[in-house]
Structures
1.
Amino acid sequence: MYPESLQKLIEGFKILPGVGDKTAERYALVVADTDEETIRQFASALIEVKEKLRPCKVCGNLCDGEICDICADPDRKHDTILVVQSAKDVIAMEKTGQYHGVYHVLNGAISPAKGILPEELNIDSLLERARQAREIILATSATVDGETTAMYLDKLLKKEVPAVLVTRIAHGLPSGGMLDYADEMTLVHALSDRRKME
Ligand SMILES: [Zn+2]
């Protein structure tokens, strides 16, 4: 077997998605072969992310302080809020460069099957923000859970903030695919073809 230090590192790599025994072994051996300074920087980046990264107080997106760069940007349209399931979705949409509003990250989707209730999601602060909004765009994924969440939010927003326009992105997204897997053009079209929720 491997020395204990190497074995620990292999176990560490296995927390990453798609990394099994073989790949973890390969990564650990690369680390063993790499110069110490590079590895020190890598190790401190891992720690720094855990120490600094936290949800934005306004939108729930991940950031290195209290408020994310998007919420802090005066040039964004703060009355247009795109509601997504995760911070990964924010990154995907930002890559398109075609969206100029702000976001709201739910941290998941309502799922009767997995026992995830609306109370467990970042919904209360969305209602507060919605009072100052002109449009709320629901961009949860095209899965059953994503659609359930969009319908729940639509009903809630219509009741609490009836004057606000609620729209749903069009789903030219891969079937059952998550928003973050869609290519940029698909996302741009899904956004521009959004429809009013009826
Ligand atoms: Zn934010």
2.
Amino acid sequence: MNKSIVLAITGASGIPIAIELLKQLLILDCEVHLVFSNAGIITFNHEMGTKLSINPEKCKENLALNYKLEKIDNLFVYRNSDWFSPIASGSSIGESMVICPCSMSTLAKVANGISDDLLTRAADVIIKERKNLILVPRETPLSVIHLDNMKSLSKLGVSILPPVLTFYHHPKDINDLIIFIVIKILNQLDIKHNLKKFWGN
Ligand SMILES: Cc1cc2nc3c(=O)[nH]c(=O)nc-3n(C[C@H](O)[C@H](O)[C@H](O)COP(=O)(O)O)c2cc1C
């Protein structure tokens, strides 16, 4: 077993990045604790053209089937209202958490210690336990409110990893751009992988 990672998907654009990350984490033998915000489910359905069940077991089945996920015994899906989930507690939370994509609303909540659902509670716990939190914020242009929130989280050691376009690795298609961001996230998680190495990663 590799690392135990909390993956949170919120209502920002960039769901294909989250799916590729989930896929790779499972391939790399990680235990993944997955939670969607309510808007995350809506955005997921909108961007992926699916209708994901909000029931955790059915959601897991949908994901495994539609995206050919491997090692799904290592995947645990929680309802965003499940306060009894292990990721709500400092004594059992994983080593790292990634919020990908991260909406400006979730960014603001996390930056201000507002933990009114499982997803934001898990992020709050990761910060208080001084573990590794990586945010993949997606909005453009950014307001001073967004930038201030990112700055205060960065000061706490949170990694701010926007999914920016890069061309120096000569991407052939969108998938190359997605993989590039996933590699950046895996590097921040300190997880070794065999994905194509791009110069400057
Ligand atoms: C299709 C779609 C795309 C969206 N994209 C973004 C985005 O890129 N960034 C963002 O901050 N909000 C985006 N939103 C708005 C958020 O979903 C909304 O602010 C929501 O309240 C966020 O809730 P959450 O943080 O609990 O997921 C989008 C909404 C929809 C329906």
3.
Amino acid sequence: MRLPAASASLLLALPLHAATIAVDVGHSLGAPGATSAYGEPEFFYNRALAQEVARRLRGAGHLVLLIGADGEETGLRPRPELAAAARADLFLSIHHDSAQQRFLKPWTVDGVQRWYTDFSGYSLFVSRQNPRFAASAACAQAISRQLQSRGFQRTLHHTAEVAGEGRPLFDRALGVYEADFAVLRHASMPAVLFEAGVILNRDDALRLARPATRTRLAEAVAAAAGDCLAAP
Ligand SMILES: [Zn+2]
């Protein structure tokens, strides 16, 4: 069948490996996660970045299910269940990082005492309890390579031998850790939890709030996501 020129070029514009990707906004308005060194709740960082990631993925021809963007409380088990119902090929949970209390120092911002840490950088988490562990790890590594090629650096502070940390590294160079977080365990598809940076770090918090930073982070995720799923 001969296609009209317009539809032929439309077909050519579609990516070879279009996927359905669930982008999960970590936390909710009612339980917004960490608080930045300047007092900004993590949820707002997560939502802004998740929306940019979704925009980039859609631009690359993928179908995107954005979970939790309305800020309503979505349980940790329903999140990957929504992804499964949409037949998602990948579950990506977007977060911004903190540190254990012993690594925090007090300072004052606008007359209010806040907490900060000197840890800085992104990290990625995958779970061996996820049935698609190998594919999850491959996607986390692909995302990390794209981040590093754009100048982002990973943090190793989750290896600290203290309560709440001591996470085993799957890939030290790429900052990919193993952790059995509920959203990763309950996902039936490959699943990655992305901590985009440490908002308790005074520099990271400012950088991560900039649209230009979000753009670079989202480009990295979008560049990696389609490719890692297409790999055998
Ligand atoms: Zn979080």
4.
Amino acid sequence: MKLRLCSRGDLPTCEVRRFELADGRAVALYHLEDGFFATDDLCTHGEASLADGEIEDGRIVCPYHLGAFDIRTGKATDAPCHIPLKTYPVVEIDGELFVEGEKVEG
Ligand code: FES
């Protein structure tokens, strides 16, 4: 099922925002120059929200230990991160952004 996250105009280019899912997961939605991308929000190295990190050259830099991941692929690019992030296809319909999932709260 497609879950609406926000309107495309709600997230400016080069910004990231966290969205909570009903099953306890959270996704980070990124707006890069070439489109929208989504990953798990939780860093695979610790309890950090990647939406609190910084986007640099297509990577999200974790605010805790400055590890990083490729936003488009989820691949860990900078230590201490080595486990990849799960990624989610983002679908745009009539200017609204969706990911696949169970249900969005809030
Ligand atoms: S918690 Fe993200 S790099 Fe350590």
